[in-house]
Amino acid sequence: MKIISALYRRFAHLVHEIAKFGIVGFLAFIVDVGLFNVLRSDGAPLHDKVITAKAISTVVAATFAYFANRHWTWRARMRSGLRREYTLFFVFNAIGLAIAEACLAISHYGLGFHSKLADNISANGIGLVLGTLFRFWSYRRWVFLAVKEPERSEQAAGAAIV
User: Fold this and answer.
1) Which residues are within 8 A (CB) of 8 and not within 5 positions of it... i.e. 6 or more apart?
2) Which residues 6+ apart lie within 8 Å of 131 measured at CB?
3) pLDDT tens digits, one per residue of 101-149
């Protein structure tokens, strides 16, 4: 039990970030799917414009995810400007999407698995997991920057101890 407790203390911050990131991602998914279906419903202005409806729902969901991650998941991290963060956020989202698309293409066209189940497993299972891992890592690394600790010289550190 001591080992588990020590591991949790060491990685608690990361575990909390991952949990918050997952909650934000789930809520963004709900926004995306919900808005897409509202835009496509009978009588809606975009009911016959599938691509436009999906583009709008994706942009709205990604914008929600950006602000939720910025102000909740990584609120304690440095702010490097809305334009910079938002642009990088969308670039890394596009790369995450490309990862899922690549998994689907490999499975469907490369390996010849053509069933709906196989397509869903490759795109929404394997691709989603790999894309999400990439997005978490890249957002943490390049979008929402860690706060820099002030550097202290050895002399100043020694004086602080005495």
Assistant:
1) 15
2) 95, 96, 97, 99, 100
3) 899 999 999 999 999 899 889 988 899 899 999 999 999 999 999 887 7
